[in-house]
Amino acid sequence: MRFVKVIFLIQQQRHREIYTIMKGNTIFILFCSLFVVSFLEDTGAAQAGTNYGVYIVYMGAAASTNGSLRDDHAQLMSSVLRRKENTLVHTYRHGFSGFAARISEEEARSIAQKPGVVSVFPDTQVELHTTRSWDFLKYQTSVKIDSKPNTGNESSSSVGSDTILGILDTGIWPESDSFNDKDMGPIPSRWKGTCVKADDFNSSNCNRKLIGARSYGDSVATAPAKLHTPRDTVGHGTHVASTAAGSTVASASYYGLAHGTAKGGSPSSRIAIYKVCASSGCRGSAILAAFDDAIADGVDVLSLSLGAPSYLRIDLKSDPIAIGAFHAVDHGIIVVCSAGNDGPDSESVVNIAPWILTVAASTIDRDFQSNVVLGGNKVIKGEGINFSPLKQSPEYPLIYAKYAKKSGANEAEARNCNPDSMDKNLIKGKIVVCNNVGDEDYSAREKISEVKGLGGIGIVLIDDQSSRVASTYGSFPATLIKSYDSAVVLSYINSSSNPVATILPTVAVTEYKPAPAIAYFSARGPSYDTMNILKAWPLALHNDVIYYFEQPITSYQTNMIVLQPDIAAPGVDILAAWIANDASQTPEGKEPPLYNVISGTSMACPHVSGVAATVKSQNPTWSPSGIKSAIMTTATQTNNMKAPITTDSGSIATPYDYGAGEVTTSGPLQPGLVYETSTTDYLNYLCYLGLDIDGIKAIAKTIPNDFACPKDSNSDYVSNINYPSIAISKFNGTASKNISRTVTNVGGDGKTVYAVSVDAPSGIVVKVIPDQLTFTKNNEKLSYQVIFSSSTATLLKEDVFGSITWTNGKFKVRSPFVVSSKSGDDDEYVL
Question: Which positions fall inside the Inhibitor I9 domain (predicted)?
C-alpha cells in the first residue's frame, strides 16, 4: 500500500512487458506499469508554474438530445473564449455537458466554483491495454441454446446487421479484408455518424461494414498530422475492431501460423471507429469527445481497450472513462472496457464503475511453441513466435550467459544478459541461455537485442511468468522456457565439454490443455473504490506530482464496491487484422503482415464487446445492465479438462481473477433471468462516493422525484445495488448481512418456477428467501433476499467465495459472491 502526503506522488513501478510493437528501432510498450498520465513537456497538459494547460470542465448531463448547449454551459464557455484565441479544444453537448480548453491554473480554480460545474481536472492521458478464440469459446458453452432465438422468419445475420459497435482506440486500417461489406444490407437509417476526411482517409474508405470514422487528434496545438486522421498507424485499433466485429475472412494467418478463418464476435454488426489514441496513449479530452459523439451518432455498444494505471485511483469526477460511460449507459449504450494489464497484483483492476462491463484476459487452447533441441536430441518445450533459420539438428554451440561474463562485470547481470555484462568473443556464434526470472531491470526485448548485438545466433530465456504468452521475435531464434526445464538445460551445459543445441521455428499447437487459464498480466480484484474523496480535486500536474488546490482531506478510506473484474475472455495470442504497412513486424524477406498475434486485456475486451453486440441484435429492447447480466450469469468456470479454471501458475482461479467466469457465446442469448440495474442503484452508488443531491442532479439525466441520498450511505447500500454478483465487506462474524436482488424473467416460457442452490464456503451460512421464484408471465420481476451469517462467530482470515444459482431445468442463472472482513480502515491512504 502506498502513502501520500498532501500531494499524490506518482511512482514508477517495475516495467512489465505485455506485448510490444516494433517501430523502426523503437519499442512501444502499449500497456506496462509505467504511469504516462503526464508527458507534460511533450503534450502540453496542465502544469503548475506555467500559464496555460488543457483542463476538462465537466458540467454533468446535457440540456437535450439535439446538441443544444445549456445556458450556463454556453455562458461559461463564451467567457473563456473571449480571453484567448484557440482556447477551445473540445465541446461536449450531446450525451453530457462541458468542454476542454487551454486555460491557466487560476482560471481552472475559478471555473470550478461556478454554478453548474461538477468538476475541473487536467487533461491527463490513459494507456492502451494490450482465430481460434471464437471457436474455442463456442465449445466452452455448457448449456444447449436454440440456434436462432427470437428471430422469427428473419435470419440472425440480418437482425445483427442493425447493431452498431463503436470502438474508441487508435483508428482503423479500412482496406483490411476484415472490414469488407460483402452481403451486408443498407446502413441503418437511424445512424447519424460520419466518415471524416483527412489526407489519407476519405468517405470512400467507409462502407456498409465500417459506417463511421472520427478522429480527435491531440489536445496539443502542435500535434502531428497523423493524429488527425482515423487511419490506424499503430495496429491496436485495427486488431480490436476485427476481433469484435470483423467480417469472415478465409485463410487468415500470421505467416502461416494460426491458419484458419478469421471472424469477429459479431461479424454482421456495423463498426464505428473513434480514434482517441496514438502510440503514446489516449487523451481524456478526446475520450470524452468520442463518448459525446458516439451517443449522438447512435451506437449500441462501445468498446474501450484502454484505461488508467491501477495505482492511480482516479476520483470518479475526474475519470473520463467513468464519466463518458455513465452518460452512454444512461442513453442505452452498453460499455465494455478492459480490466488492465497490471496483474497478477491484487487490487489492480481498473475501469471499475458498476455501469461498465470490465473484462479480464484468459488463454485459449492454442499454444505457439518454439522448442529447444539439445545434443542427444533431448527436446525442451519453449514458447515464442519466431521463424528460426537454424537447422533442425542440434549443432550450434550453447552457452549459459554467466559463463560469458565480461571482465569486471557482475555475475548476476551476466546471467541475466544485461547490457555491457557479457564478452562478445564468448557470445558470438552461439545460442545463449539467459535468466529472466525476477529481473526487473531489463525486458526480454532488451536482452535479445544485447545478445544479437554481440553476435549471438539465438537466445533461450528462462521465464516462468511469461511462458504462456508468445511474443513475436521475427527471424531471430528466441524462445522462453520454464525454470524446471532450465534445470535440464543447465545440467547438460555443465556436464558437456561441447554443449550444442538448436531452436526450432514456431509451430501452433491446438487443443492445448488446460484452457482457459487466467493470464499472468490480467488485472486482479478486488475492486476498491474510494469514499469521502470529493472534497478535493486535482487541478495541476508538475514534475510527476498532482497538486490539490482545495482544502485537502485528512484521510480517505477504500471499500469493496462490486466484485470485479466482471468476466474473462480470450486475451492471449489473439490473431486479428493489422495495419498493412508495418514493416517492423516483418521477418526478413517477407511482406508486412495483414494479420498479427498480440496479447493483453485489450484483446479480451473486444471478445466481450462482440458478444454484447450479438445479444443486443437478438434482444434489441434489453437494457445495458440486462445484457451485462446475461453475459455474466451464463459464464463458465470450468476448462477444457472439465476441471476448475486456473491461473497461469496453476492455482484455482477465483472471482478476483475472472469475475463471473469465462464468457460463453450462446448462453447470453437466452439467460433465463437477468438482473437489471436501475437508475436509483447508480444514484445510490454516487451517494456512497460522496456526491450530494445537487451534484447528482447535475450529473444524472433523470432522477426519480422522491430520490434522496440515504443519511448513512455506507457500503451496505452499495452491496444492495441490483448487480449480477454480490460483494460483502466489513463482515465481522457477529452481525448478519441482508442483501436483496430482483430478477426479470426473459426466458420466453411465461409460467416457470426457478429453484435456488447455494455453494457456500466453509464458515459462512447463506440463506436465500424465498428458495423458489414462481413466474406467471414473461418480463415479470421477482425479488429475493440473501442473508449472510457466520457459523463460527469469528473473523474471516481471508476473503471467501461462493455462488447462488437459480435454475428451472432449462436455464442456469449463476451469481458469484465474495465475503470479506476487510473494511476501509484496513486500507487507508493518508493525505
Answer: 54-129
